[in-house]
Design goal:
Alpha-Beta Plaits, 5 helices, about 20% strand, SPOR-like_dom
Length: about 190
């Protein structure tokens, strides 16, 4: 079996001739479709309207008063009113929810961690230093073995904590915001 390959010139001629055939077919198709569209517009008559009577296919409504052959007024249905008062039940439910919410003392929030170390004396000194910085801040000392932690504030979100953090960074460069259970302010 000999493998006959076409020379490059013959291959190029073949590709060009196939391309020409495809272009000719597409041009012929476009001309054919446009002529059909033009013919359909010529034969279209807009003056004819279509009408069909569908009354035989519609369901008929039968008035129940005509079946009994009586011209009585329709019966009025009695309106039932409930004497049960929902307001008392709703008020009792709101009171119980209020009481449950009063029992909740802490929520998830943020505090600023100012000190972490093994010295109790150092944590007390840092706590006093924070009080001298701002006496309105709540300062908490926490012992988690093996270290003491000093945390500042009860912030509901990180943005509120970041304002105080910027001020505390001058005195405590290692201060950072940490998630923690915070006390609810009532």
């Amino acid at each position: 079996m000999k493998n006959k390959l076409l020379p490059d010139a013959d291959r190029i001629k073949m590709n060009v001739s196939m391309k020409n055939v495809l272009e000719l077919i597409s041009v012929f198709t476009i001309i054919l479709m446009s002529s059909c569209a033009a013919m359909s517009q010529k034969h279209k008559d807009n003056s004819v309207t279509y009408y069909e009577d569908l009354s035989t296919a519609r369901p008929a409504y039968i008035n129940p008063d005509t079946l009994t052959n009586s011209n009585q007024a329709p019966k009025k249905t009695a309106v039932t009113t409930f004497s049960y008062d929902d307001n008392k039940r709703v008020a009792a439910r709101i009171d119980s929810l209020t009481e449950m919410n009063r029992r909740i003392a802490t929520v998830q929030g943020f505090r600023i961690l100012v000190y972490t170390g093994s010295s109790s004396d150092e944590s007390q000194r840092i706590k006093q230093q924070v009080y001298t910085f701002d006496s309105q801040l709540n300062v908490y000392t926490q012992y988690k073995q093996p270290s003491f932690r000093v945390k500042v504030g009860d912030f509901p979100d990180r943005v509120a904590a970041s304002y105080i953090l910027n001020d505390l960074k001058r005195s405590f460069p290692n201060a950072m915001i940490v998630p923690d259970q915070i006390n609810l302010v009532r």
